[in-house]
Amino acid sequence: MIKVRTFATPIKMFATMRELHDLDAQVAAFLQEEGADKVFSMSDSTTVGESGETIGLMRAVAYRVPD
Predict the structure, then answer these.
(1) 16 pLDDT exceeds 90?
(2) I want to staple 49 with a disulfide (CB 3.0 to 4.6 A). Which of 27, 41, 54, 55 is the partner?
(3) What whole-number distance in Å separates Cα of residue 46 and Cα of residue 15?
(4) What global pTM score does this model have?
């Protein structure tokens, strides 16, 4: 069965690399818990505040789990 899951994280100035590593770890742990045997796509997009500043990151993952 093919599934899609979206993850989100806020981004704070000067902490971006740590937040990206945390997001990577969260996604990897989720895929392992789900028993995903294939990842078809993974894409990131940013969310912005009222002034156009980047305030968050969304990651969408399309993956397959055995039926």
Answers:
(1) no
(2) 55
(3) 15
(4) 0.82
